Amino acid sequence: MSNLFCSDHSRKAGEDLIGTATGCQTYILLECPQPWMSEAFNSKWVPENFRVMIQEVKRAKIPIKFLLICNNESHKKDQTTLLIYHRKDGLWNGYSKQEFLLPNIQQAAGVVKKWLWNQTSDCEVTTSVTRDIVVCAHGSHDQCCARYGNPFYFHANETINELGLENVRMWKSTHIGGHRFAPTAIDLPEGRYYGALEQDSFKSVLTRTGDVKCLEKIYRGWGVLPKSIQALERELIFRHGWDWFQYKVTGRIIEENIDQTRILAEITAEKPDGSLFSYQAKLIKDESQMVEVKASCNKNESLMCVKYSVDSIWLSAKKFVPLSA
Q: How many whole angstroms separate alpha carbon 60 and alpha carbon 200?
C-alpha cells in the first residue's frame, strides 16, 4: 500500500463514507486531560478503578462505548465532566443525556456503577448544552486523527463562536473508529457520524441549512441504524431535506439472502406532529463502490469495505416511488 496517510488514501480512492457509523446503546464520555496513550484507558490520568470497571462491563457484554474527552480547559479545571448518552428501544431521535460534574476523576467509576444499577447520583447537573460534538484527536492511535482532527477542532470552536451557538460544545476524543475519514466526529445526542469534515460543511451540519447534498461527501451514517441500511437513511435525507433531522426514526432489516448481497429494509419515521410513515427498500451489495483502502496509518494491510446502494424504494403502502421523485 501507499505511504500516504490513511485518510489521504481513502479520499484519493474516492471511498464513499456511508455505512461506516458504528453505533451502540450507550456512550460514556469521561473528561480526561491529554496526553492519551494508544490504548486510551492506560493513559496516565485514568484511575485504576475506572479501568477495572470497564473490564467488568466488557465481561458482562454490556453494549457501552467508553471514550475519553477533553477541551481547551480540561487541564486547568479542578472538576471532571462525565457524560452518559443512552438509547432506549422504539422510535428514536438519538440518545438521552445525563451529565455529571465530579469533584475529581476518581469518582467516575462509582457514578457509572450507580447508573448501571439505576441509582441516582448527587453529582448530576442540568446544563444549557443540547449538543456535544466529539472529534477524534487520538494521534497516538492513528496519525490522521492528530494531523486532521486537531486543526479541525481548533477551527470548529471558532466556527461555533462565529455562529453564536451557545448550546453546542466541542470535545476532542479518543478513537471513535474510522480514522481513515479524519477529521471524523460524532454529533450527540443524535449519534450521527461524519468524516472528511471541513468548516463549510460543518456549518451546514450545525445549522441544518444550505445544500443537504453536502452530506454525500461527509455523512458516515446514523449509528442507531444497522450499517447495511444507512445508505437508505441518507437517501431519505436527500428526499426530505433538513426536516428529516427533526423526525424520530427506527429501522430494521426485514430479510436478506444468505450471502447478504440483497437486503429488504424498512425505515419508519415520526414527524413532530405525530404522524407516521414508513419506507421499504431493496438494497444491493454494490461492487462498483467497493474500493481498496489503507486500513490505518500504522498498518500496511489493505481493507475492502462492503457498500450497499438503494435499488428501489417505496412507501409502506407498497406504492413504488422512483428515487428521482
A: 42
How far are the Cα atoms of 1, 170, 297 from residue 306, in angstroms, in the given order? 19, 31, 21
Helix axes 199-207 and 149-163, enclosed angle (nearest 10): 50
Angle at which helices 48-59 and 108-116 pack, to 10 degrees? 30
Calculate the CA 288 to chain-centre distance: 25
Q: Name every residue whose Cβ is closer than 8 Å to that of residue 178 and which is 6 or more positions away in sequence.
A: 20, 22, 184, 193, 195, 220
| Rounded CA separation 164/261 (Å) | 46
Q: Is the pLDDT of residue 283 over 60?
A: yes
Q: What is the CA radius of gyration of the chain?
A: 20
At 8-44, the pLDDT tens digits run 555 665 578 999 999 899 999 999 999 998 898 999 9
Quick: pLDDT tens for 223-278.
999 999 999 999 999 999 999 999 999 999 999 999 989 999 999 999 999 999 99
Contacts of 187 (CB under 8 A, 6+ apart): 131, 133, 193, 194, 205
C-alpha cell at 280: 421499504
CA dihedral 126, 127, 128, 132 (to 10 degrees): -120
In terms of residues, how long is the chain? 325
Which of 171, 187, 191 shows the shortest CA–CA distance to 86? 191
- Say whether 194 sits in a helix, a strand or coil: strand
Beta partners for residue 296, in sequence order: 299
d(CA 192, CA 247): 13
Mean pLDDT lowest among 14-23, 144-153, 164-173, 311-320: 311-320
Say how far apart CA 297 and CA 274 lie, in whole Å.
47
Distance CA 252, CA 228 (A): 10
The pLDDT score that the predictor gives to residue 291 is 66
Question: What is residue 49's predicted lDDT score, i.e. its pLDDT?
Answer: 97
